[in-house]
Write a structure and sequence with these properties.
Elements: E1 16-22, E2 25-31, H1 37-48, E3 55-59, E4 64-65, E5 81-87
Length: about 120
């Protein structure tokens, strides 16, 4: 059996992406499930010029704070996941999550608010 025909397992390091949102900005980051949250924060530091210690990432929609030492796979962060980025303010507290949902892409205009980010 050749290596390319072997069955895929959840541990395969297939490239994926996550959407990191803050205010009205979305960053699309390419990553692999074995990357730690700290490594994701280091990628963000290059983009936004904010130290990793001043970043907090939360998996949406449940707002679970992601642990720097754990991998994306450990914390059930899947391909196309939405992660909220908050930054540390001057008073040493983190800002509130402020994510704007695009309304012009909604397929349904129902009043239920929808659960898709």
């Amino acid at each position: 059996m050749s290596q390319s025909s072997r069955p895929h397992s959840p541990d395969d390091q297939t490239a994926m992406y996550i959407r990191v949102k803050r205010n009205k900005i979305t960053y699309f980051l390419t990553c692999v499930p074995s990357e730690t949250i700290l490594q994701i924060k280091e990628k963000l530091q290059e983009l936004i010029d904010q130290p990793v210690n001043d970043q907090r990432l939360m998996l949406m929609p449940n707002r679970e704070v992601l642990d720097d030492s754990k991998t994306l796979a450990d914390q059930k962060v899947e391909n196309d996941a939405v992660v909220a980025l908050t930054l540390r303010k001057d008073d040493n507290e983190f800002e509130d999550v402020n994510i704007t949902r695009p309304t012009d892409f909604n397929t349904s205009r129902d009043a239920d608010g929808g659960s898709n980010w």
